[in-house]
Amino acid sequence: MTRERFAEVSGLREGQVRGQIERGHLPVFSIGRLSLVNVALLTWRELELAPCPVMTKDAFAKASGLRERQVKVQIERGNLPGKTIGRLSLVDVSELVQRCISQANNVVVL
User: Fold this and answer.
1) At what angle do helices 39-47 and 93-105 cross, to 10 degrees?
2) What is the pTM of this model?
């Protein structure tokens, strides 16, 4: 989720979100050049709920705060996992959650 969207949803100011990221209190997930708040890592383990395994690009864009064009480009570049079901091109949310968790597990905090 973008910092802006996270701020909107959480009620924090963007500056507060940025500060929490800089201090290492909010996890970040990189998609290409974009750095997003790793909401999956914040909630996945605590909730132990399976998210919807796939989402349309426009639904994912709304949920994450990205523009639909950014989602499409990041899928094309392989930075976001995509899945084709019939004629539909979708975001593979379950794969993305696994990437978010594994990326966070590989980060060394000093």
Assistant:
1) 100
2) 0.58
